[in-house]
Amino acid sequence: MIAVIRIRGTVNVNPGLTYTMENLRLFRPNHMVLLKDDKSSKKMIEKIKDYVAFGEINEETLAKVLIKRGKLEGKKKVTLEFLKEKKINSFEELAKSIIEGKVKFKDLGIVPVIRLHPPRKGHKRAGIKKPFTVGGALGNRGEEINKLIVKMN
After folding, report:
1. H helix count then E strand count, the chain
2. DSSP assignment string, 59-105
3. Which long-range contacts (CB under 8 A, 24 or more apart) does 108-111 make?
4. Domain span at residue 137?
5. Residue 118 gets which letter from DSSP?
6. Which residues form a coiled coil (predicted)?
């Protein structure tokens, strides 16, 4: 499962890139979506790599995000009682089943876009206009995306 976080804003963005980000439900900075690791998702991410950070999310980080930032339809929090109604015992179990592809947000009524906080202590390094490989915040982070998500949670 790939986590994609929009880093940059909307001003002076090519309309084709804006359309791609809207298809991925990334309308505003600091929003995160989870995508399957398939060819079409990778091509879309490759197209918008200069505006987003992405990488492989792990179960522990996803569980933390769902506890704090998970929302149901109608802006209600995802609670343990709600999960028990859906026959899921814990947030860790939910995170594992989402990453494995057994359960989808849509099936449970959870909003697929997760609204994160700007990263605490900033993006550091070279800011939001350079790729991760040269010290910036954009592009493929691999496993390092989990550290960014924890800072933004």
Report:
1. 7, 7
2. HHHHHHHHHHH-EETTTEEP-HHHHHHTT---HHHHHHHHHHTS--H
3. 109/72, 109/73, 110/66, 110/70, 110/71, 110/72, 110/78, 111/70, 111/71, 111/72, 111/73
4. 2-57+114-152
5. P
6. none
Distances in Å between the Cα of 65 and the Cα atoms of 50, 61, 148 are 24, 6, 12
pTM strictly above 0.90 = yes
Residues 90, 133: one domain?
Answer: no
The whole-angstrom separation of Cα 100 and Cα 31 is: 22
Q: Which two tokens stand for residue 78?
A: 């995802």
Segment 70-116, tens digit of pLDDT: 999 988 999 999 999 999 999 999 999 999 999 999 999 999 999 99
Say if residue 98 is in the same domain as residue 140. no
Q: Report the length, in residues, of the chain.
A: 153
Provide the number of structural domains found in the chain. Answer: 2
In this structure, the answer to whether residues 14 and 50 fall within a common structural domain is yes
- Pick the closest to residue 31 from 105, 111, 133 (CA basis): 111
CA nearest neighbour of 1 among 96, 86, 83: 96
How far, in Å, CA of 128 to CA of 134, rounded?
Answer: 11
